[in-house]
Specification:
By secondary structure, the chain is an alpha+beta fold. 29% of the residues lie in helices and 31% in strands. It contains 2 helices and 7 strands; from the N terminus they run H-E-E-E-E-E-E-E-H.
């Protein structure tokens, strides 16, 4: 029987090592937190981050959270005293993630390949706002659906 947990840890370590060597990764992310920008089955190309000053709001970044890697959009960069904090959020997430520091950011998404073979460039802030509006409308629709059904 395979130990999936140890396999995942190994893959995370290899991925981090490749990014630190300046190599890009091509992965299929799991989950729906970046929907609709990244959909199930899409593949993303992640480039290493050599200089955090090149990261801008609207970029989709990969960062370490505890023992996991998270792929979310950078929504704000906050300067506090002598520190810089990066604020991220999944496009379909209702809340921001906890602020992170530059050392937690390991990569940035440069390309999104769809299941149909289309290649989309990374999404910018305007796409983020459209995605946020779409998600809010979906949440609102889901809240109204029981009321609509009840009154039918």
């Amino acid at each position: 029987m395979k130990n999936n947990k140890s396999d995942n840890i190994f893959l995370k370590e290899v991925s981090l090592s490749l990014l630190s060597e300046g190599k890009s990764l091509r992965i299929k992310p799991a989950g729906y937190s970046m929907f609709p920008a990244i959909r199930p089955g899409d593949i993303v190309i992640i480039a290493p981050v050599n200089n955090q000053s090149n990261i801008t709001t609207g970029d989709i970044v990969v960062f370490r959270r505890d023992s996991d890697f998270v792929l979310h959009r950078l929504t704000d960069i906050r300067h506090q005293d002598d520190n810089i904090f990066y604020i991220t959020r999944g496009d379909s997430s209702m809340n921001e993630d906890k602020p992170i520091t530059a050392d937690k950011i390991t990569g940035v998404v440069t390309t999104i390949e769809t299941k149909r073979g289309e290649i989309r460039p990374k999404r910018s802030k305007i796409h983020y706002r459209r995605n946020r509006l779409t998600v809010r409308l979906i949440h609102l629709f889901n809240k109204l659906l029981p009321i609509i059904r009840f009154n039918s």
